[in-house]
Amino acid sequence: MEVIDILALKDALNSIISDWNFQKEMCDSSFPTSHEYELFYQKMSVLHEALVHLQGAGLVQYKNGEWYII
């Protein structure tokens, strides 16, 4: 059985959530131009997919419009 470094896992989860919040804020504050939209959409899609998988694993939850580590 492999040992999980809880602090490293928490740092990784915080990094994913921070990146999600940053990208969301960027989209909300200044909607990207058409040539930037595809890049923003790709980043948000990948981050959202990661967060959904982490939620399925019971590591994070989405509540009141925010992602949280459980």
Polypeptide structure, described:
By secondary structure, this protein is mainly alpha-helical. The chain has one domain (6-69). 67% of the residues lie in helices and 11% in strands. The chain has two helices and two strands; from the N terminus they run H-H-E-E. It has helices at 6-29, 34-56, and strands at 60-63, 66-69. The protein has a two-stranded antiparallel sheet with strand order 1-2. A hairpin with a 2-residue loop joins strand 1 (60-63) and strand 2. The protein starts with 5 loop residues before the first helix and ends with a strand. The mean pLDDT is 83.
Characteristic terms for this protein:
67% helix, 70 residues, mainly alpha, 11% strand, 2 strands, elongated, two-stranded antiparallel ribbon
- From N to C, what is the helix and strand string? HHEE
- How can the largest sheet be summarized? 2 strands, antiparallel
Runs with pLDDT <50, length 5+?
Answer: none
How many domains would you count in the coordinates? 1
Strand order of the largest sheet: 1-2
Residues in β-strands, percent: 5-15%
Given the C-alpha coordinates, what overall shape results?
elongated
Helix- and strand-based class?
Answer: mainly alpha
Please work out how many helical segments DSSP would assign.
2
Radius of gyration from the alpha-carbon trace, in angstroms: 14 Å
Cα distance spanning the termini: 23 Å
- Can you give the mean pLDDT? 83
Number of strands: 2
In helices, the fraction of residues equals 55-70%
